[in-house]
Amino acid sequence: MKKKKREERNIRLPGSNDLFVGLDGILWRKRHRVFSFISAVSCCLLLLLFAFSILTPPPTATDHFLFHHISAVRKTQAVESISDKAFEVPASGGNLGRDLWSSSQSKFYYGCSKASKTFPTADRKTHPNRYLMIATSGGLNQQRTGIIDAVVVAYILNATLVIPKLDKHSYWKDTSDFAEIFNVDLFISSLERDVEIIKELPRNGGEAWVPHMRVPRKCNSECYQTRVLPVLNTKHVVELTKFDYRLSNRLETDLQKLRCRVNYHALRFTDPILEMGKILVERMRMKANHFIALHLRFEPDMLAFSGCYYGGGEEEREELGAIRMRWETLPVSNPEKMRRHGRCPLTPEEIGLMLRALGFGSDVHIYVASGEVYGGEKTLAPLKALFPNFHSKETIATKEELAPFSAFSARMAALDYIVCDESDVFVTNNNGNMARILAGRRRYFGHKPTIRPNAKKLYKLFSDRNNTTWDEFASKVRTYQIGFMGEPKEVKPGKGEFHENPDSCICEAKDLKSSQDQGRNNGVGVSDEQEQQSLEEGPDWTDTDYLDNNAVLTKRGQHEEEEFFLD
Length: 567
Description:
By secondary structure, the protein is of the alpha/beta class. It is built from 25 helices and 16 strands. Helix content is 48%, strand content 9%. The chain has a five-stranded parallel β-sheet, with helices on one face.
């Protein structure tokens, strides 16, 4: 049956000598022809490729470089395209669920500097023939520290203090006398129970020769009694020169409280300075209910001294390098290391980004206390774009109003000091003298917010900001700034400069413990780890010990040397 069906499918081909070819045979022949054609084409292609490989020269190093360069550029462009879309800085600071302009814990602390009942008064302890003279050093706030400590040293030595001499020869070249900056009569009367103070050394029939001395840094009570008291006992008068940070941070409580009485109550500016400062503050209040004061400290001398680099190329290196040569003993700078360790001031743009991340929107008014900003308006432009309501004493006062002060750096600095002190939030871009003095004062008078950038942590965050989203960036900024916002108990007692952390003069309210317990339950407060971070990672490139060892400014062509301390 199967054989019969197969025969039916056979076809006789004419002239085939009775050769029968089946349909299966025809299909097989067609497939064979297609396969032969494909094989022939493939062989031709292989021959062409072989010939091409022989005739074509090998790729050069330039070809490899161009290939990798183009690949890298395309990759970078793709990343930047994504990053530009992700890192969009909002105009609003957002709703963080907290008050930006005050501390919830500040009401539980207050300044207290009253002397104890056992603290001997001046009329009981001052030696009748023992006079202490002081020559301060540096800018306004550095000299302020010297004046404060001079009163305490006079008390330790049982001496009468002669009104301190201000520095007229250092970098700032300010010719002002004590009475032209500070209210001298108030200074004397406010401290009369503690130290006898006179305006001039008694003549005693002629001009007396006064021995000069310079005591070590951080000299304590025993140090003064050992080094200075013997001279006073024999000469009856001595002048301590370059007097700044020459008194130990750690003294007995009553002496620390005397420091606070001098700093926060007795040492006030003259009426003309106070009146002009009041006008500036009132004009800021007319613009907004709350405002930020920013001590920008981005002047050429600061950047040169810090040894930092901000991407300005060879021009920047030459300009700042020439300024840095003023300090002959400064070591060779390592900009990357300095910035990595948090020892460089943030750029104005970085300050603006930090403030936006902390919740301050573009409608916030900022008063900038600063001298000549390196790079001028070009450097300030990003900050002004983030905060268009940008003010300074020069923009809110007329030249005529500032004329009595403009020729004197200390008086102009005093005006900035007043506005920064009265601001709702004070932001400092370094840890120099003005920053420390104001931070301590704001703690004493109610713990008003004082923001100090955690530059060591923020450095990497700013460097990588185009590889993250704004929300991630802002969240990290807020985390890194814990312990750097001027909250109570951020710094352990005895740590840092006393003028910055006057812990002996900060008292706690009676109901503090219950509030602390509630704060812990609500997640409020600074952890031990965060507190340690604030102590160890703060910018310390203006530390006075570092300056004392390294920042000696030698006057070219003169024998006199000046220690230069950034204010």
